[in-house]
Amino acid sequence: xxxxxxxxxxxxxxxxxxxSLLTYxxxxxxxxxxxxxxxEDCQRLKPDPQPYSLALSKSLINRQYVISIEDSFxxxxxxxxxxxxxxxxxxxxxxxxxxxxxSAVSVVxxxxxxxxxxxxxxxxTCPNGQITFEYLxxx
Length: 139
Fold this sequence. Notes:
Elements (H helix, E strand, L loop, with lengths): L7 E3 L4 H11 L9 E3 L12 H10 L7 E4 L2 H9 L3 E5 L16 E3 L11 E3 L10 H6 L1
Parallel strand pairs: 1-2, 3-4, 4-5
Antiparallel strand pairs: 5-6
């Protein structure tokens, strides 16, 4: 919960796989999130909107105050079909052209850091080269 922002994790991976990845690779606890929706929680997976719709109903947050961050076309479709704004970070295995991501409010190659700034393919400019709270608020 950063600056009053409630972070939810919405994935179609199994909960055990997510927990292993977060704790092993990033030293992040599942308790870092306000809530988590995994494959075990849904009958229909991304690109269906059910995972995001379930997160919205459980969180009681109005969708107009939500932005999803996705790394795949399927995730973008799930998010948009649930009525959310979505920022996409491209990944190395999805070879779709940028033109396929027109429904995203922003498309970047990475979240960026001072030594490796992000590249914006779509969306507002990012003067610091990093996706920040202020950048997300601009979306």
